[in-house]
Amino acid sequence: MSGTIRERILVIGFGPVAASLLEGLLPGLAAGLFTVDVVSAEEHAAYNRVLLAEVASGATSAEHLAMIDPLRLVAAGVGLHLGETVTRVDRSRRRVHLDSGRTLGYDRLVFATGARPVVPTLNGLDFAPHAEANLPSGVMALRTLEDAAALNRVLESGGRVLVLGGGILGIEAALAMAEAGHRPVLVHHGPAPLGRAVDTDGGMLLARSLRSAGVEVVSGVRATAVRRDFSGFTALATEDHGEIAGDALMLSCGVRARTELAAGCGLKVGRGIHTNEYLVADTENRVFALGDCAEVAGAAPAGLLAPGWAQAAWLADFLLTHRAPAPDAASAPLDPPTAAPRHGASNVLMLKGQGLELVVAGNVMAGPWDEGQARVSVFADPKAGRYLKLVTEQDVLTGFLAIGLPRTGAEMVLAFERGSTLPEDRSSLLRLDDPGLDDSLVAAGADDQLCRCSGATHGQVAHAVEEGCSTVAEVGAACRAGTGCGGCRGKIEAMLRVPVPA
Predict the structure, then answer these.
(1) Which residue, 279, 319, 381, 450, is the most exposed by fewest CB within 10 angstroms?
(2) Of 286, 347, 281, 279, nearest to 313 (Cα)?
(3) pTM score over 0.90
(4) Residue 236: helix, strand or coil by DSSP?
(5) Is 57 helix (H, G, I), strand (E, B) or coil?
(6) Measured distance CA(18)–CA(313) in Å, rounded
(7) How far apart are CA 455 and CA 464, in angstroms?
(8) Positive or negative CA dihedral for 343, 457, 23, 60?
(9) What is the pLDDT of residues 408-465, one digit of tens each?
């Protein structure tokens, strides 16, 4: 490439999605097609935030969360600017300004700024929706390694941790703490955890199961303020439950896309940075956004790894095959090389931990006696910790909730995503969790998703095993399966135990 002017690609943000993009750009970097710089306010290279609760509880070390080797990137020629913050983007001059006073130029700019935790409007907290929160001592959101380390210090000293929020992330964090022998308290507003996803009976069983797993659950809480003394957090004040004492407060009230930097340089923002279906955020085809900060073609950020990784793979391919507009060009045709990236996300929600297995998909709020087209079937055995609710229309599964029925839940995921019809006798599905039953109602195919974080399929994992992978880590390196929340590791281990045909 001697004599060819190399394009300058600049990435703002260095989370898992940005790491995936960099992996895809390395061949172009080696070929001299472009230069690549990455700016990140964190001093750490990309790591798996999904597993921060395990670091906080002491179940694993921070090193195990690493998703990319920064030394390998530097050796490949990537310019890493860690611990630096972009203060302004000058699109007219195609430069970004850093808090250090330095500037970096670009021909292509990629926003991978992710999302920040939502800070509830409580007295004693600095509510700033479009800036990094300045939380008092003892209050954290578990979004960074520093948060995990701070929470771990409280837990190791025997402290009582309150988790504010009844969503999936708060529940998983509480379960991780309980599994490590700590005594977390899950505090939430609704009548039961996961109230937006599960029905009343399922919520009651979920709360009971959490208590059995060692998590104290306080429902129906209207929090008003945080109490502090000279050493930090002491209690959560509420309207109806008095003051709930604790040594730390972990906020798990959702996330909000980081868009202020994009808005400041004139890009359109809403629930995220607005892009078209090809991830383009400007009219010149120079600026892109992906992952948790991007509102792609009107779809809200999914908050999951799989869509972000799919976007990163597509964008890497595009940048490898399409030159940037000429320096003096106002715009250039996009002419995408392939179909637009898949930016949707499965609406299947899974929860595992401490003997608790829950999976829910679609809308399960209909009742068995409701009028309408839906047919609702319910099985409940609360003392055994089992619950199954199926919602069908013309025998096609449109929603389901399975608690304590792992095999049934797994089969219903396949049926739900395929739009399969269910047998007329719905009670026959309960036999799926009979230990003596070998037959499967819906056998997983090669194109069916196995890892919900990465989007890796059964076929991709099978191919990795056939190519010689013998551990979950090796399979993860080959196709990313098992590198997210870890919920699919059991399935991968089972596939590794099956002899590969000679």
Answers:
(1) 381
(2) 279
(3) no
(4) strand
(5) helix
(6) 10
(7) 15
(8) positive
(9) 999 999 999 889 899 999 988 888 887 665 555 556 677 677 775 666 777 878 877 8
* DSSP string for 439-456: --SSPPPTTSBS-TTT--
**CA gap 268, 231 in Å, rounded:** 43
Within a 13 Å sphere around the CA of 67, how many CA atoms are in the beta-carbon half?
27
Which distant-in-sequence residues (6+ apart) come within 8 Å of 339 by Cβ? none
Q: What is the per-residue pLDDT across 321-374, written as a single tens digit (0 to 9) for each?
A: 987 776 665 555 556 556 777 655 667 899 988 789 999 999 999 999 998 889
Side chain identity, residue 472: V
pLDDT given at position 1:
44
Residue 17 CA from chain centroid, whole number: 10
Q: Which of 210, 141, 132 has the alpha carbon at shortest distance from 171?
A: 210
Q: Helix, strand or coil for residue 139?
A: strand
| Closest to 290 (Cα-Cα) out of 7, 40, 19 | 19
d(CA 276, CA 308): 15
Confidence of residue 116 (pLDDT cuts 50, 70, 90): very high
Max mean pLDDT among 116-130, 209-223, 291-305, 410-424 falls in 209-223
Alpha helices by DSSP H, listed for 4-127, are 16-30, 52-57, 70-76
List b or e across 327-350, with b for residues whose CB sees 16 or more CB atoms inside 10 angstroms.
Answer: eeeeeeeeebeeeebebebbebbb
Q: Percent of the chain beyond pLDDT 90?
A: 70
Q: Which H or E element spans position 361?
A: strand 356-362
Q: Which two tokens stand for residue 459?
A: 């076929």
| DSSP structure string for 333-351 | ----SSSPPP-----EEEE
**Separation between Cα atoms, residue 305 and residue 497, nearest integer Å:** 27
Q: CA 255, CA 163: separation in Å to the nearest integer?
A: 15
The CA–CA distances, whole Å, from 385 to 205, 318, 370, 405 equal 7, 49, 25, 9
Distance CA 390, CA 400 (A): 5
Side chain identity at 67, as an amino acid letter? M
| Overall average pLDDT of the 369-396 stretch | 94
Calculate mean pLDDT across residues 97-106.
97
State the amino acid at position 40 in one-letter form: S
